[in-house]
Amino acid sequence: GLIHYVYSKFIDPQEYDFAELDKSITLVEHDMSGLGAEQQDPVELRRAHRWITRRGYILTIMLVVVWPLLSIPAGVFTESYFAFWVLVA
Known about the structure:
Layout: H1 2-11, H2 18-24, H3 42-69, H4 79-88
């Protein structure tokens, strides 16, 4: 990373105008051209957002808290137990 930085900053600098880039980027967050009428319904979108958010939180808790806690009873992993743990993961 440092080599790339030094090269691009001091040896071969390029003065790029990022305002030009901003002019040509189209944001897709507000593009609903591919959605039908029922998929654009604000109530349905809120319901879908809630559904996705809840499952995201549940999955995060499972992967960050529960999954590591399940390894505590094993203590130090043997090679075969580690292979099993990798297989399950």
